[in-house]
Amino acid sequence: MQIDLEKKYSELKCFFEPEGVAVIGASRRTEKLGYQVLKNLIDGGSFTLPHLKGFSGKIFPVNPKADEILGLRCYHSVKDIPERVDLAIICIPAKLVPQAVKDCAEKGVKGINIISAGFAEAGEEGKRLQDEFLKIAKEAGIRIVGPNCLGTLYTPTHLNASFGGFLPLPGEVAFISQSGALMDSVIDWAVKEGYGFSAMISYGNKSDLDAPDFIAWAAKDPYTRAITLYIEGFNDGRYFLEVARRVSSIKPIIAFKAGKTSAGTKAVGSHTGSLAGSYQVYKGAFRQSGVIMADTLTQMFDLAKALAHQPPPEGNRVAIVTNGGGNGVMCADFCEELGIQLPSPPSELIEKLDRTGKMHPAWSRSNPLDIIGDAGPERYEVALEAVMSCDVYDGVIVIQTLQTPTRPMEDAKIVVEMHRKYKKPVIAAFVGGKITEPSVKYLEEHGIPNYNDMDRAAKAMWALMEYGKYLKRRGLHEKGTNLN
Amino acid sequence: MRKEQILTKIEKFKRCGQRFLPEPVCEEILSFYDIPTPPAQLARESGEAVELARQIGFPVVLKVISPQIIHKSDAGGVMVNLKSEEEVERAFRKILENAKSYNPKAEIEGIYVQKMAPPGREVIIGAVKDAQFGPVVMFGLGGIFVEVLKDVVFRVAPIDEEEAREMVDEIRGLPILKGVRGEKPIDFDSLSQAISNVSRLVVDFPQIEQFDANPVCVYPDRLYAVDARIILE
């Protein structure tokens, strides 16, 4: 099976960059779903936040009993809209959905987010309704997100085509989530953390489109640099494997799989059968397809931040540069646990640094390179320059603790400059809070991921390495195939 | 045996409603996929067993073969490390007795006389049909490691030898295979090949629901699948 990513991208584009959007079931009553969804489109969210802006394209409310909602002209049917409509959002009772899909088919709508619940998840009758609208959609070539989902959000077009509270900040990470409620709280958390997203997708019952389809779309989306995934299960594991294999060599995919204990296979009678819990099998499938597996949701976003902005290292040898002993030791411990090597600095490097006259006489001369608590920006500069230009190291973790002589913003600028100059992957751990915050913001705005904990910093470096190893493996693979 | 012949056999067992393939059939299938098993043959009477043991070379293992007896050890149907003709003769009778008292209705097809594999490091190679991924292959350390530590790794089948080697490298118990206290490393190439071949086997025959080669004894220069189990859908 060869997936045509380009085709998938243009097919799903209507969910993110539609020419016009219709809200079927738009309502004037503020407590109704149909009101909130319309408001989300117009204002970017149902809450007031400074970063919010409304959808940049045209919005058409549809309601047979209204002529105007939220200042927009309301149409009695989607078929009455005189302009092009690429995307429809359906938020009407389940039993009316097949007819609405039929109207969309006549109108020439390309994609529908069905927010309404009461389908396959709700029993026999719901299942029948789901099959009914699916048949209509298939015949008309309409793709469906949902039902029973939040919908799609896309920051480049300020499209909040969902029941989600508000748009996240713009960023380079796409989040594909099997759970809608989870996505809602992630948005709220992310805005507070200043963590940005390119797209967010909640696909609910996956009656038509499933996670692999969105992964394929994200592979070609120019605003997405890393793809995150919350999943419980797929409809078709092999389809996922094919897509993930293809996409992970273009962009990193990071996944969190929930449902560790559920037995995906109920096979008994063999050892293998009794051991084949779905989590173990997923783990294998992820390894096979280059998907980085996160242990927690927070970790998934941690790793995505690094993978979206930092290149994978050539190998697993890292230098730790720190102005604090304790954090250096902690970081070294976590690195060791994760199989990250910390080679000692070669004697030329030590001599070079000693000759600069900028080092403290008591600096460690080993890895971690403890450049002592009184380190100012100049010392960070010579130390970073030395390790980044040294062949012994494939990547750098730079730690800054806040001490009286510390100049966080100046240090941050040096880190950014050094990364630009040498292109080696850098993970920052500027630890602290209030005073450190602006420098952390500067780092992250310039693509240097920062973590306030040593385990998180080490894990981020590990993820870059895992991804690098996978790419290398794939490279070797392809070479082998060519020879044949 | 050729692929079509394997298919014919599998279909025959399926038609009879027999889900567990007899060990000699499992071994035939393994040999088609280049997975070595210790030399073995089926004996129908004790004299034949003694003769076979002499040909194969001592020590040998005797195992009961009966469609009604799936867990051979539980039925007292396995006797190991038999070093002489007398021991083989005695074991043959004992196994028959045990099998009859375990299940009086069991039809005994014969007793399998198998060369006793020398002690080696034990691993498990398995496969199962996963609800979401279809056939998947598993590798892990055998014996207590698989029972207690569940130190196993999965892949979606089929995989090539390179991917199989990655599976081997992923288990926590890898140092045991690399050799501790001066022990030689095991034959990683043969092991990777065997895992990859099992993954092809379960893709080639979708009728197979579960597969276990446990233990597989690995040595510095080769390996033996000592016990194999194939369960049909």
Short summary:
The complex is a heterodimer of chains A (484) and B (233). By secondary structure, chain A is of the alpha/beta class.
Write out key terms for the chains shown.
heterodimer, A: 484 residues, alpha/beta, Rossmann fold, seven-stranded mixed sheet, five-stranded parallel sheet, 42% helix, B: D-amino Acid Aminotransferase, Chain A, domain 1, 2 domains, six-stranded antiparallel sheet, four-stranded antiparallel sheet, 27% strand, globular
Can you walk through the features of this model?
- Chain A: GO terms for molecular function: acetate-CoA ligase (ADP-forming) activity; ATP binding.
- Chain A: It comes from Aerophobetes bacterium.
- The complex is a heterodimer of chains A (484) and B (233).
- With 484 residues, chain A is α/β, with parallel strands linked by helices.
- Chain A is 42% helix and 17% strand.
- Chain B has 233 residues and is of the alpha+beta class.
- In chain B, the strands form 2 sheets. In chain B, strands 5, 6, 7, 8, 9 and 10 form a 6-stranded antiparallel beta sheet that branches. A 4-stranded antiparallel beta sheet of chain B has the order 1-4-2-3, covered by helices on one side.
- The radius of gyration of chain B is 18 Å and the shape is globular.
- The model of chain B has no long low-confidence stretch (mean pLDDT 92).
- Classes of the chains: A alpha/beta (484), B alpha+beta (233).
- The A-B interface holds A 233-234, 236-238, 241, 264-265, 267, 269-273, 275-276, 278, 280-281, 283-285, 287-288, 473, 477, 480 and B 19-20, 70, 124, 126-134, 136, 138, 140, 146, 150, 152-156, 159, 162-163, 166-167, 170, 209-212, 214, 229, 231.
